[in-house]
Specification:
Blueprint lengths: L11 H5 L18 H7 L1 H10 L5 E2 L12 E2 L7 E4 L8 E11 L14 H12 L8 E7 L6 H21 L8 E7 L16 E7 L2
Parallel strand pairs: 5-6
Antiparallel strand pairs: 1-2, 3-4, 4-7, 5-7
Helix pairs in contact: 2-4, 3-4
Keywords: Cell outer membrane, Membrane, Signal
Main location: membrane
Pfam family, one: OmpA
């Protein structure tokens, strides 16, 4: 069965994804050997870090390193908690919807296979997750679809895609598997509820787990 969620041209999606989705940075770099060097200079990783950091330790803008040289400023934003029971996970988790970022990666049609080029984006995410500010934090890798197509199928596909991102981060980004939980929301958490069939609703997010 071909999922209707995948029928539209994937070329539409990059133009409609939020600029907050990792800043749109694309570089061809070695997967692991470049990580330490990039941590000192990569603005994309720093932007992700600022989006995911706890409210009492957001990195400042001065100094070297992805964490701004250790400088910390307070982000005065009230958390927006939501309780989720991740599929295949033993218990509920609480996520904070004010601490999240979209991951601009693409998949083969009707599959959870990451397309070539996804590594650059995921490398930046791994850099941020390995920063000292986030080392004690856990995150939900959340897969989403639009409302187009069968509900059960979309939920399954979103789960598989979230798991693919989690597995890459564990295998190549050197992130501890205990810090990452994959969950497929399907169409249950639309970015644009007024246009439930829009391709902008098809995305993968990283959201902080706070409980």
């Amino acid at each position: 069965m071909k999922n209707a969620d995948e029928r539209k041209d994937n070329g539409e999606l990059p133009q409609m994804m939020s600029r907050r989705a990792l800043g749109g940075f694309v570089l061809s770099l070695p997967l692991l050997s470049a990580l330490p060097a990039l941590a000192q200079t990569d603005q994309g990783a720093t932007n992700i870090l600022r989006s995911l950091a706890p409210h009492d330790r957001v990195p400042g803008r001065s100094g070297g390193g992805a964490s701004g040289g250790g400088r910390v400023v307070v982000r005065r934003v009230a958390p927006v908690p939501r309780r989720v029971h991740p599929r295949g996970y033993g218990s509920d988790v609480v996520i904070d919807l004010t601490r999240r970022v979209e991951v601009t990666v693409f998949f083969d049609n009707d599959s959870a296979t990451l397309r070539r080029g996804a590594e650059a984006t995921l490398m930046r995410l791994a850099l941020a997750l390995r920063d000292p500010i986030l080392l004690d934090q856990r995150f939900l890798i959340a897969g989403h679809t639009s409302a187009e197509g069968g509900y059960d199928y979309n939920v399954e596909l979103s789960q598989e895609r979230a798991a693919a991102v989690r597995d890459w981060l564990v295998s190549y980004g050197e992130i501890s598997p205990g810090r990452l939980v994959a969950h497929g929301f399907g169409p249950d958490m639309l970015r644009n509820p007024r246009s439930p069939y829009s391709p902008v609703n098809r995305r993968v997010e990283v959201i902080a787990i706070t409980g």
